[in-house]
């Protein structure tokens, strides 16, 4: 019997052969668009998605939309707050045409009643132009967003005014997201970041994009701010510095001036991006005089947002007599964590549109795939920053409630932390994109194609679920054969168009961002 040679090494394993489906290769790699073309393709696709949602959702079928519509009309018309305590309570009174009083009552018959279809909305009646006092809970909000989306009130009034506001808001948000795609398309670390942007646009976000709500530009501005800062610090390119700096400024303007936590969110995003890159790159960027204009503009945007918050008392306040002990406060907030996580993915209507749990699980799984890839491929620095941002996402409601719940109760919604939470996806995508050369080409294409297909499917299903809730009620039949009371377009046609829009969005975004270098 021959002795075993201890010095003999086993033969190297044969490389695993694999191949992406032909349709995936043709759709995702048949020529990468330039950043300029990437912007326009992404803009068209994002607007198709958000515009269809805006036109298919019943009027005021989004949480707090009546208050934001009234605030937008008051901002553009120059209506002043007539209340005596609006600064303290956040509830203002403005004089507007009677139309807005009627519109504000639209959701009263179906909000928080999942089995009540939206066909209960009353018809407009009387003299809709007659002046009347209308209340809004958004009286202390920063006027920037409302001034940009509220100008349709200068046209002849009617229900179409709200639809026009929605479409203007969708245009603005789509432009911010398309800007982010264009920035990513011009970076070296891009392959997985396009997919991360798509994962950031959950049904919760689409619902915001198709509504009159300042959080639409807060979230989309945050996407732009994240990717612009990460491009500057993680993939430096002097030739693309100006467009990235412009992305930082635009993102900071909208995040800092959308809602009460805006300036703080800008600081959190900035710190996370700085921590994710070698300190030398931040020093080089700050000491370069060619970047000072962007630094100054961003600081000014945050300063103006902070001044408005302090001057108008935009943060929630209360009488201070709720009396919730701190320990009970923290324990209850922690107990609501699962609900907050679900709301990051699916929070529709007046939080009364229940999506199937498996839809949420698929969203979480798709996001988890990207996070796990980033965790496995990233450096120790990458993993540390992702962990910090994830911890901050869970800790923020606990901290905010610890400060304010004893005054105003538990008011937090999962979507409030979206500008921070999306950083987990974007940081993970940058981490795995940095090791893209080490991944087999077919594996990258298969993962992106699979996740993209799942996204198109679950987004389309969620769209139909939302239509079903308002057409038939939660327990109603699922075949929506009857015409919808608020739109002449059949539900099936709307759903098919929405699915096609998402297919265009996934294809155009991934094609703009995926690298074309062949790999083993």
Question: Secondary structure elements and their pairing?
Answer:
Layout: H1 22-29, H2 35-56, H3 65-77, H4 86-89, E1 92-97, H5 98-104, E2 131-136, H6 144-149, H7 159-185, H8 193-200, H9 203-209, H10 215-234, H11 241-256, H12 262-275, H13 279-287, H14 292-312, H15 326-335, H16 337-345, H17 357-377, H18 380-408, H19 418-433, H20 441-472, H21 491-513
Helix pairs in contact: 2-7, 2-21, 7-10, 7-11, 8-19, 8-21, 9-10, 10-11, 10-12, 10-19, 11-12, 11-14, 12-19, 15-18, 17-19, 17-20, 18-19, 20-21
Uncertain spans: 1-6
Number of DSSP-assigned strands = 2
Summing up helix and strand content along with how strands pair, one would put the structural category as mainly alpha
The share of residues in helices is 55-70%
Shape: globular
Number of helices: 21
Compressed to H and E, one letter per element, the order equals HHHHEHEHHHHHHHHHHHHHHHH
List the strand order in the largest sheet: 1-2
Radius of gyration (Å)? 24 Å
Q: Give the overall pLDDT as a whole number.
A: 89
Largest sheet: 2 strands, antiparallel
**What is the CA-CA span between the terminal residues?**
42 Å
What share of the residues does DSSP label as strand, in percent? under 5%
Summed up:
This is DUF2142 domain-containing protein. This protein has 520 residues and is mainly alpha-helical.
Q: What do you see in this structure?
A:
- It is globular, with a radius of gyration of 24 Å.
- The model is unreliable at 1-6 (pLDDT under 50).
- The protein is built from 21 helices and 2 strands.
- The protein has helices at 22-29, 35-56, 65-77, 86-89, 98-104, 144-149, 159-185, 193-200, 203-209, 215-234, 241-256, 262-275, 279-287, 292-312, 326-335, 337-345, 357-377, 380-408, 418-433, 441-472, 491-513, and strands at residues 92-97, 131-136.
- The chain is mainly alpha-helical and 520 residues long.
- Strands 1-2 form a two-stranded antiparallel ribbon.
- Helix 7 (159-185) packs parallel to helix 10 (215-234), helix 7 runs antiparallel to helix 11 and helix 9 packs across helix 10.
């Amino acid at each position: 019997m021959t002795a075993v040679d201890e010095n003999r090494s086993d033969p190297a394993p044969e490389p695993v052969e694999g191949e992406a489906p032909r349709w995936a290769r043709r759709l995702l790699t048949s020529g990468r668009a330039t950043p300029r073309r990437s912007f326009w393709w992404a803009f068209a696709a994002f607007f198709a998605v958000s515009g269809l949602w805006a036109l298919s959702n019943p009027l005021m079928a989004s949480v707090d939309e009546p208050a934001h519509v009234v605030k937008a009309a008051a901002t553009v018309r120059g209506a002043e707050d007539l209340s005596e305590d609006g600064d303290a309570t956040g509830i203002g009174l403005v004089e507007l045409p009677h139309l807005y009083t009627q519109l504000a009552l639209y959701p009263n018959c179906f909000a928080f009643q999942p089995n009540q279809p939206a066909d209960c909305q009353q018809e407009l009646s009387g003299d809709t132009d007659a002046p009347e006092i209308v209340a809004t809970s958004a009286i202390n909000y920063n006027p920037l967003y409302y001034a940009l989306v509220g100008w349709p009130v200068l046209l002849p009034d009617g229900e179409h005014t709200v639809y026009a506001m929605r479409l203007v808001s969708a245009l603005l948000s789509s432009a911010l997201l398309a800007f982010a795609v264009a920035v990513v398309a011009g970076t070296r670390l891009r392959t997985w970041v396009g997919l991360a942007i798509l994962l950031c646009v959950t049904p919760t976000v689409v619902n915001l994009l198709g509504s009159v709500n300042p959080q639409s530009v807060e979230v989309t501005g945050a996407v732009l701010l994240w990717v612009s800062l990460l491009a500057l610090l993680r993939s430096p390119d002097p030739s693309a510095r100006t467009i990235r700096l412009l992305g930082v400024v635009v993102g900071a303007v909208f995040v800092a001036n959308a809602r009460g936590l805006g300036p703080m969110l800008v600081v959190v995003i900035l710190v996370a991006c700085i921590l994710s890159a070698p300190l030398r790159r931040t020093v080089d960027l700050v000491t370069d005089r060619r970047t000072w204009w962007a630094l100054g503009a961003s600081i000014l945007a945050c300063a103006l947002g902070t001044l408005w918050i302090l001057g108008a008392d935009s943060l929630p306040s209360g009488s201070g007599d709720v009396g919730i002990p701190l320990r009970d406060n923290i324990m209850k907030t922690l107990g609501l964590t699962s609900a907050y996580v679900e709301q990051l993915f699916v929070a529709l209507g007046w939080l009364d549109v229940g999506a199937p749990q498996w839809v949420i699980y698929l969203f979480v799984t798709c996001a988890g795939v990207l996070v796990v890839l980033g965790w496995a491929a990233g450096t120790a620095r990458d993993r540390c920053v992702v962990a910090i941002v994830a911890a901050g996402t869970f800790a923020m409601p606990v901290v905010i409630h610890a400060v304010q719940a004893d005054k105003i109760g538990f008011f937090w919604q999962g979507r409030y932390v979206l500008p921070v939470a999306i950083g987990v996806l974007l940081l993970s995508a940058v981490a795995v994109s940095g090791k893209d050369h080490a991944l087999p080409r077919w594996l990258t294409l298969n993962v992106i194609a699979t996740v993209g297909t799942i996204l198109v499917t679950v987004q389309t299903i969620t769209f139909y679920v939302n239509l079903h809730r308002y057409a038939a009620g939660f327990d109603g039949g699922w075949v929506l054969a009857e015409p919808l009371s608020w739109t002449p377009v059949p539900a099936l046609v709307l759903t098919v168009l929405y699915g096609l829009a998402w297919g265009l969005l996934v294809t155009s975004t991934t094609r703009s961002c995926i690298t074309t270098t062949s790999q083993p």
